[in-house]
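Structure (tokenized):
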């Protein structure tokens, strides 16, 4: 079983992985900014749901990395570029929708459709090719054939990383939601801030 294999990893190695993973989880990146923007725009509930959607996207990338599809994608730069541009276009569409949404009704914040927010979070992460490349580079550093099947180690460690990352991203979404309550009660300020953040993510995605 996967967790039996994870139990074979020396505790010092596992603690090093957890520490490194948490540092990376807390480092501001696309997922963090996306959940924060959703929280600012839709409230703490939207921020939490966005974090959950992002976590589901990470699970998709982890599956790809585990079965080797990530390595295939990484070997074809044209595929990575295509995914980048599709992801950037999606984020720009979200920016446009936010910018043109008009003033925010404070009573409407938090009244979001859960599936829509989760879907947005999933798409934002799934259309970013960087997570699968990161997983392929990060996870194997903490594996050893002597501890059990490598694919089980990668999958188990990846699930731990996805779990902690989802919790941290949800936390950022909550902070964004609380900030939105303070800064966004007139003139559509919340939607405008969210639009700028979405557009900035799109530029950041294609710039690297």
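Design, position by position:
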């Amino acid at each position: 079983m996967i967790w039996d294999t994870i139990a074979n990893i020396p505790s010092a190695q596992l603690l090093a992985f957890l520490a490194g993973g948490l540092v990376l989880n807390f480092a501001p990146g696309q997922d963090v900014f996306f959940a924060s923007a959703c929280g600012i725009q839709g409230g703490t509930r939207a921020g939490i749901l966005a974090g959950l959607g992002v976590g589901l996207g990470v699970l998709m990338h982890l599956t790809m990395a585990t079965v080797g599809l990530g390595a295939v994608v990484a070997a074809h730069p044209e595929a990575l570029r295509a995914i980048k541009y599709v992801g950037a276009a999606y984020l720009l569409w979200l920016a446009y929708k936010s910018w043109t949404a008009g003033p925010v009704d404070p009573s409407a914040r938090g009244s979001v459709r859960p599936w829509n927010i989760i879907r947005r979070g999933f798409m934002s992460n799934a259309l970013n090719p960087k997570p699968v490349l990161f997983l392929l580079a990060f996870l194997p550093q903490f594996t050893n054939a002597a501890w059990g099947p490598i694919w089980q180690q990668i999958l188990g460690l990846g699930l731990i990383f996805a779990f902690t990352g989802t919790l941290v991203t949800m936390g950022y979404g909550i902070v964004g939601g609380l900030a939105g309550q303070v800064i966004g009660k007139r003139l559509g300020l919340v939607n405008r801030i969210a639009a700028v953040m979405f557009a900035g993510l799109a530029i950041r995605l294609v710039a690297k």
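Reviewer-requested clarification: The longest helix spans residues 150-183. The chain has a mean pLDDT of 83.
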